[in-house]
Fold these 2 entries.
Entry 1:
Amino acid sequence: MAAQSLTRRGILGGTAAGLAAAPLIGRTAPSAQESPSPAPGPVRTPEMQDIVLQVNGRRIQLTVEPRTSLLDALREQAGLTGTKKGCDRGSCGACTVHIDGRRVVSCLTLAVRCQGRAVTTIEGLAVGEELHPVQAAILHHDAFQCGYCTPGQIMSAAALIEEGHAGSPDEIREWMSGNICRCGAYPNIVAAIQDASVQG
Amino acid sequence: MQSFTISRPGTLDAATAATAAPDTAFIAGGTDLLQLMKQEVARPTRLVDLDGLLPDAVEVLPDGVRIGALALMANVAAHPEVQRNYRAVSEALLSAASPQIRNMGTIGGNLLQRTRCNYFRDPGFAACNKREPGSGCAAIRGENRLLGVLGTSRACIATHPSDLPVALAALDASLELRGPNGARRTVALADFYRLPGDTPHIETALQPGEVIVAVLVPASAGARRSCYVKLRDRASFEFALVSCAAAVDLQRATIREARLALGGVAPKPWRLPQVEAALQGRPADAGTFADAAMHASEGAQPASQNGFKVKLIQRAVLRALETTAAA
Ligand SMILES: Cc1cc2nc3c(=O)[nH]c(=O)nc-3n(C[C@H](O)[C@H](O)[C@H](O)COP(=O)(O)OP(=O)(O)OC[C@H]3O[C@@H](n4cnc5c(N)ncnc54)[C@H](O)[C@@H]3O)c2cc1C
Ligand code: SF4
Ligand code: FES
Ligand code: FES
């Protein structure tokens, strides 16, 4: 039954299987009272799979539904909330992480397909207390306002520099186009990346 | 997103057999499929993972390149042979989506991206013949600024949103397909996409369980002198309002052969035979280009909000021709 496949996220976000068949228009997320009481973690269902990921150099084991995105697995199961959810559709870049060294959007990545892969999130970029050059430059250039897009901007920028796409402000803008900043901190973000690329 | 299972068959034959069943879909990069599933436009209950079952490399052949269906968009765009001798392909890929999505999206998946018509992507709107055959078309009297002006029908005016197939159409590419019984066939890209007519939900020649294995792009003088021009509402990370791929074979200053295709304006990559005929054998100069570009929007039937595309098509064609001539 639907109740068994509900996760905490499903209840809070109204995205669980039991609700899927109902029309979404005009529907608000059910409150906790009208839903069965949530279990602390996801309730085990037959489709669930155990996966092992290397996250920021640490081996972590998770039990996920096939539909769980890497983003939700990181935030809600691994407790790594530095990676942000903006659009959940690939169009804002807030959820950018590196998989096996390449930048991707974690909202369109299924966690079950990351078995055995190396995932780097914003929490894993610094080396001990030493910030990654992009982190330091973002601070130095005051390259954010609300900060919501910032982890994604930093992950994308760190990859961009590795890829060799920091040759000019225009090139940086083009190769940062997958990261949207609603506060419009772009000029300082570009300056920070330029700065970090010469230091890095 | 509704719940589903995901399987990883050990062989391609097992994967194609499994996917011939109803409510089953292949997943490659997942960047379009998962978006559609999150919006409950696609509702498969079983996903079949193609990872490891199809080629993912660019093979350089004596007479062309064979691009594996699972090759990542980013890798193909950066491939030295593609950059050198199939420039329009590299430029189209680099103009598509974002660096992150190009690290995830595959060539096969890109060819099968569904339309970006907002009514199609939002099941809150009841009327969409492509999503729900026979339900009507909300776009024809609604928001249609981004939609098609060529090859559309009374049932659907949506466009194919991908950039890559536009370049492939200009380069006369073909697709290697493989069906559930192991049957292989090769289909010209020009014959792969269907016009909407009364059945806009049928978009390609692909049969249930059939996969795209690879894309074959023949080498040619035109491919070596090719480009992709994309005009859009913002400078990057945006779909085309109008795009144009051009491949021009020049002998000294005379055009031996030109092949052009448009994107962003039709349900499939739109070849321009009238423009090609107006270029063939003529001097590659501003006068020829201007004359030829005038033919580019022949037959256009704009909807209420996208009349601007008629002129923009001509300008995109002109820019593409000037770019190839200067290359
Ligand atoms: C925010 C955003 C912006 C974008 N902007 C652009 C843009 O400007 N230009 C552009 O061209 N694209 C753009 N895209 C689309 C993107 O390029 C596609 O989503 C991507 O190419 C799809 O590839 P995939 O491997 O992820 O496909 P998937 O999502 O895995 O699959 C797509 C479809 O193809 C089927 N499929 C996949 N591979 C095969 C195969 N080998 N054989 C048979 N069936 C197969 C799947 O079953 C599914 O139906 C954008 C996407 C996003 C999210
Ligand atoms: S244009 Fe096509 S995809 Fe868009 S609403 Fe009409 S039928 Fe649906
Ligand atoms: S949350 Fe993933 S791109 Fe917006
Ligand atoms: S700092 Fe607010 S969205 Fe970028």
Entry 2:
Amino acid sequence: MSRLLQRLFGRLPIGWLQLSHSKARFAAALAGVAFATLLVFMQLGILGALNSSTIAPYSFFDADIIISAEDANTLTDGSNVARSRLFQALGVAGVASGTPLYIGSLDFQLDGGSTASLQTYALDTQGQAFVTRAIAEQFDLLIPENTALIDTAMRGVPTSAFDGLRAGQPFAFEIKGKTLTAVGTLTMGGGFTADGTLFVSDQTFLRFFSGRSSGAPNHILLKVADGAEPDEVVSRLRTILPAEAVKVQTLEEAANADLAYQTTERPTGIIFGFGVLIGIIVGIVIVYQVLSTDVADHLSEYATFKAMGYGQPFFLGIVFEEALVLAVIGFIPGLFFSILLYMGMSAATGLPVEMEIARILSVFVGTLVACCLSGAIATRRLAGADPADLF
Amino acid sequence: MTDAAPIITSGLDHFFGTGEARKQAIWDVNLEIAPGKLTVLMGPSGSGKTTLLTLMGCLRDVKDGSVRLLGIELNGAPEKQLVALRRKLGFIFQAHNLHESLTATQNVMMGLQVHGRGDPVKQLAAAHHILGLVGLADRRDYLPGNLSGGQKQRVAIARALVSNPKIVFADEPTAALDKVSGRNVVEMLKALGVQRNTTTVMVTHDNRILEMADRIITLEEGRVVKDVVQPTKPLQLVELTKS
Ligand SMILES: Nc1ncnc2c1ncn2[C@@H]1O[C@H](COP(=O)(O)OP(=O)(O)OP(=O)(O)O)[C@@H](O)[C@H]1O
Ligand SMILES: [Mg+2]
């Protein structure tokens, strides 16, 4: 380590020697950096889980364009859309096909009395072309009434409970006093708004949601004709459909808008966003504290160096060296414990809390920058002082 | 150039504090320090010896009056010029101020590396050589924590001298040393004066050193009250460097 740093800086690695000289202090400093890293990782992990669980339902659908009510910010909120919009849209050049999408929430009775809320998606018989293969393959199973595809990753039920179903044995359960038969599976898992997912036919859906009518789905999914640009079709649709009633977006736009809404306008998103900010601030404060104490403790040695003719860049160099050492060595245990906690969190909540390479890199770069920044601030005290006043 | 005075002060005043607490510590000091000589500053405690020394050694901003150090006016000099000047000087302080996490050799090498990267092998050899001269050949890889007060002070002296400074400023350098090693250090400084024309300005209370001084300046309450140039007998010179 010492040799490596000597090569790197072309001088004695004073920062490293200074840090490693008092072992207890070094360990405390590393723990501080590791803790700050951990804090940021945890907040980012939760925010990331919110992001991916928001986006995930969109991946069920294989469509180019989605028509939603003007006041709908997500898949599940806002008014319904009149099905007649579908027929209007089909008359627009470039639209090849479309299907209504119905969404509701059903409570699944768990052992022990509690319930899991299942986000329930329903499509009509035309819908087969609008879902991903895994669901399309099981689409015919939904033709008999009161059948469903059930989420084997749903929160509150071990996936092993669905082993029989996977082997081809349907099982029946009760919701709202009616019997529903699980005939197939899908995997989604719990998010922030629901504990799992169900897929049913529109007929089944309407039986369970007696207040809903087939003429008023939540959204309308469209596919464009071969060779047509979805963006162009969207703008054409916008000129024909009244903007005060419905909004037309590509599916990707809708997912991104949903994400932006969840993270910047909903309390959960804002809270976790704040968490990241607080984590970063706490991290900077810890590192600054460590480095400025170190500078203060070595003030008379630094004054001597200053008297010998070392300039400000030299002191910045020492503190940057310390910052670098702390950032690199402190980051490793921080990352290690974060991964452990991610696994624990994801096991406990069923949320998709996962470590991503991009996140590791950006937190590492952030740690480095925070360390160097606090180092630069910590040496400011040396800059203007007369060496004689520092002894 | 060699015969020009390396330090000239004229009308030098210095104040500490501001407002009500403003207090003058140096009053109208006018001195020309001769090159290659050992000049001693003496006087009672609080008379301003350290203050004058740090003003002349550009460790303290000169604000009133003038100090010309090696031909450069310190009053109003930019930081960059001060940093460059300090590299031509050697300081030995009352407190040794060694870096606790560097070995004796590494501390001495800091005095060389201030001049740039250089050749590490030569630097190491120079550091070892000068540590030998101050009698620490067998302690050169010790950390300061494992050295006695006198040994630490000798490392600090080696650090100040290793880069062949033009002027050495020393503030009671022998306070922590026993009689023999104190005398050795002063002899070394005198030898440097003769061989390399190194100028030394030293604050001391030590009577044994006074007799070796070429000039003794006495301060009282921030003023020069006595200034004696005395002839000294030639020393038996110690060998300084291999070069
Ligand atoms: N940083 C400072 N701030 C305010 N006053 C100071 C400061 N340094 C020294 N003084 C004052 O200036 C005067 C001269 O101090 P200085 O340290 O130069 O004395 P000295 O001759 O070196 O004394 P000693 O022999 O005790 O080391 C003293 O009255 C001292 O109190
Ligand atoms: Mg003093």
